[in-house]
Write a structure and sequence with these properties.
By secondary structure, the protein is of the alpha/beta class. It has helices at 57-70, 93-104, 109-124, 141-152, 172-177, 198-207, 227-246, and strands at residues 2-8, 13-22, 25-34, 41-46, 73-77, 129-137, 156-162, 184-190, 213-218. It has 7 helices and 9 strands. Strands 1-2-3-5-4-6-7-8-9 form a 9-stranded mixed β-sheet, with helices on both faces. Helix 1 crosses helix 7 (227-246) and helix 3 crosses helix 4 (141-152). The mean pLDDT is 92.
Length: 248
C-alpha cells in the first residue's frame, strides 16, 4: 500500500489516499478515519455508483458521518472505468454509460473481487483498523460488484445492498452468487427505479442465502440515497458494527 496524500476535512475526519498494485492493476483508494481515534476502528467498505468515483457524494454521505460521529473508518476504491483509473478524470452520465457497456460485456467482476480483497488485506494490517468488525455498503454498481465480493469474503459481517435487479443484462453472476451470501443484509429498493424492474429486485433479494435480511422500499427513481433512506443506511451500519465490537 502506497500513501499519496492526507486531507483533514475539518469535522474531525482524516482522509488518506492510497494506491495498491493487484495482479498488474493500479487500484486507487481512499480511507477516512477519525482524526483522534482512541481505539481501533470498525471498517465500512463502500462501493460507489456507476457514474461516480471513490470520493463522490455517494461515498462522502456515508464516510463523513460514520468517521466523524461514530468512530468508524470508511474505505472506497475506484471502479474499473472510474476516478483515478481513467487516463482523464470524468464523472456523470458518460462514465455511467461506459460502466454499463463494460457490465454488459462481462463486467470485470472477478478483477474487482480481487482488488477489494487485496484492499481488505492491506487495511486490516493497519494499526487503527479493527479487522474483526467489517461491513459493506454498496447500492446500484456497489451491489453489482459488492454481492459477488460478499459471496467470496467471510470477513465482511454485514452489508447494505440494493437498487439492482436480475432484469439487467449479465446479472446471472449475481443470481448464482446470492445464495452464498451469509452476512446480515439490508436491501434497499426504489419503487420507481427506471433501470430495474420491481420484480427483479425482489427476486435478487429473495435469492440471498442469509436468513438475516430485510427489504426496505422507498418511493422515487434511481438516484443517490437521501433523507430516510440514507439515515437507514447509517443506522444499520453503526448498529451492526457497534454490536460486533461489544460482543467480542
Amino acid at each position: 500500500m502506497q500513501w499519496s496524500g492526507t486531507t483533514e476535512t475539518g469535522d474531525g475526519v482524516t482522509c488518506r489516499e492510497f494506491t495498491l498494485q493487484v495482479q498488474g492493476r493500479r487500484v486507487p483508494g481512499a480511507l477516512w478515519t477519525p482524526a483522534a481515534a482512541a481505539r481501533k476502528c470498525p471498517l465500512v467498505l463502500v462501493g460507489h455508483g456507476g457514474s461516480g468515483h471513490k470520493k463522490s457524494p455517494l461515498v462522502l454521505d456515508v464516510a463523513l458521518p460514520l468517521a466523524g460521529r461514530h468512530g468508524i473508518a470508511v474505505a472506497a476504491i475506484d471502479g474499473p472505468v472510474h476516478g483515478a483509473r481513467r487516463a482523464q478524470f470524468a464523472e456523470g452520465l458518460p462514465v455511467r454509460d461506459e460502466f454499463l457497456a463494460l457490465w454488459k460485456a462481462g463486467g470485470s467482476v472477478d478483477p474487482m473481487i480481487a482488488d477489494w480483497r487485496a484492499t481488505i488485506d492491506a487495511l486490516c494490517g493497519l494499526p487503527d483498523i479493527d479487522a474483526g468488525a467489517i461491513a459493506w455498503k454498496g447500492i446500484s454498481m456497489g451491489t453489482a460488484y459488492g454481492l459477488p465480493l460478499l459471496a467470496a469474503e467471510p470477513r465482511i459481517r454485514a452489508a447494505v445492498l440494493g437498487m439492482w435487479g436480475l432484469s439487467f443484462p449479465n446479472s446471472e453472476r449475481l443470481a448464482a452468487d446470492a445464495p452464498k451470501v451469509g452476512c446480515g443484509v439490508l436491501f434497499q429498493q426504489k419503487w420507481d427505479d427506471e433501470l430495474f424492474t420491481r420484480e427483479s429486485q425482489i427476486e435478487l433479494f429473495d435469492r440471498l442465502g442469509t436468513r438475516d435480511k430485510r427489504l426496505t422500499v422507498y418511493m422515487g427513481g434511481h438516484k443517490n440515497p437521501e433523507g430516510e433512506q440514507l439515515q437507514d443506511i447509517l443506522d444499520f451500519l453503526t448498529g451492526r458494527l457497534i454490536a460486533q465490537v461489544r460482543t467480542r
